[in-house]
Amino acid sequence: MAKATKAAKATKTAATTGRASAEPDAGPGVEPDNGPDIDSGTGPGSKSSTEPSTTNGISRRRLLGTAGAAGAAGLAAGAATGAGVSRAVESPATALTTVGSSYIPFEGPRQAGIVEPGQARGHLVAFDLAPGADRRAAAALLRRWSDAVRAMTEAGRAGGPALPAGYDDQVADDAGPSSLTVTFGFGRSFFTRTGLTAQLPEALAPLPDFPSDAIDRRRSDGDLWVQIGADDALVAFHALRVIQKAARDTAEVRWQMNGFNRTPGATARPMTARNLMGQIDGTNNPKPSEPGFDAKVFVPANGSPAWMAGGSYAVVRRIRMLLDSWDHLSVARQERVIGRRKSDGAPLSGGTETTPVGLDTFLPDGSLAIPSDAHVRVAAPASNSGATMLRRPFSYHDGIGADGTPDAGLLFVAWQADPMRGFVPVQRKLDGGDGLTRFLRHETSGLYAVPGGVGPGEYVGQRLLEG
Ligand SMILES: C=CC1=C(C)c2cc3[nH]c(cc4nc(cc5[nH]c(cc1n2)c(C)c5CCC(=O)O)C(CCC(=O)O)=C4C)c(C)c3C=C
Ligand SMILES: [Fe+2]
């Protein structure tokens, strides 16, 4: 595929994935114990443009690689440890950092934005088809979107094509690709709206209601879902604007959520990111290098329906963290809620961050080292008949809510080959028995079928829409 060809041309490097005696713990309310006009169907293909766009006479691509040194230091450390998921990175001769020049191809057997480390900035957006927009209109939209993303990910690369005028509001000028990915999915309602119910995947059955859910349906679901990620805020915003403008009369925004992660190069060496509770979050994600990874995360080539081959299912939950309550717990108690040390993410059963969690380890007093209601115990595949998912969240912070507490938490995005063997059984178990539940509120929910990737000239979802 083109993905492999492009990757081969680029310099390869590694970057980190960015990852009982149940002592009764204080819940909320207890005493503190510690202080352009984008043309329908005629958008540019990846190879069609020739000259780079210029700003004040300076080519966007000539400006790559002129930022600080932290990224390069982090990159070197990443390569030395060999940790994490490898990704293609271009290295212009003058580069002092790789943040801007990091490039993730749009084309490939799988959509980008699933296995790559979570970017520093993310936008999650759901669209509903406009009244009267049919399958044909939806197909034209997916082509416009795919062409736009192809152009945006290629533009700004050293030696890459220019961003065509129709896409360029100059917001992303001067920046490189910055690990931009845009990932597209279909919600259940898309199939009824477009008369494609015969192609509706079984796996897209509505998620069950979980007892502790507090779901706002207006900010949930949607016909189409788009996940945008980039390591530069302007590159991410630019992609968002282009996607929204390209939707034009065919689809309107149903909801939008904005998130973030740690910026690459902010730590002395690549490390698993922390969430807004301060925990190292992502350690025990399945790794692409592990046997069985693909089967857990992606629909197999002979999977059903056929158009989902190479695709995946994304569960998206906006999970508010009840931070004021959480902050009242001592660090020791917080660690027992999770089952890992806050400072370095090591399991309470001993070792370092990457030491396997000892679910059967006992303390000298005979109690379980990982409490019976600790999050990692209740969520572990071993506690859920092997159920596994790839978690790739963004944090969010939208100021102070009506209740006077931070409207902040996790835009939880979980990827799996089948939600019934991933998110659903695990969330059922967490909802009843996880010590963390009392510090969380699931406020929105969505499930999307994310088809496989595209080759040159193809658009995402083509096999569904033209099958
Ligand atoms: C339904 C699945 C899960 C939800 C919802 C969820 C929410 C959630 N998790 C954290 C913080 C951490 N989670 C950690 C591990 C972990 N979480 C899940 C699943 C859900 N989490 C799994 C499957 C695992 C791995 C368990 C294992 O096999 O060990 C951790 C520990 C570090 C890690 O392994 O990533 C933290 C910390 C928050 C804050 C949260 C909701 C806001
Ligand atoms: Fe978790």
UniProtKB/TrEMBL annotation:
The lineage of its organism: Bacteria, Bacillati, Actinomycetota, Actinomycetes, Kitasatosporales. Coiled coil: none annotated. This is Deferrochelatase. Keywords: Heme, Iron, Lyase, Metal-binding, Oxidoreductase, Peroxidase, Signal. Its main location: other. Its cofactor is heme b. It catalyses: heme b + 2 H(+) = protoporphyrin IX + Fe(2+). Belongs to the DyP-type peroxidase family. The keyword Transferase does not apply. Residues 1-58 are annotated as: Disordered. Involved in the recovery of exogenous heme iron. Extracts iron from heme while preserving the protoporphyrin ring intact. Residues 45-58 have a biased composition (Polar residues). SUPFAM superfamilies: Dimeric alpha+beta barrel (SSF54909). Its EC number is 1.11.1.-. Transmembrane segments: none annotated. It comes from Actinacidiphila acididurans.
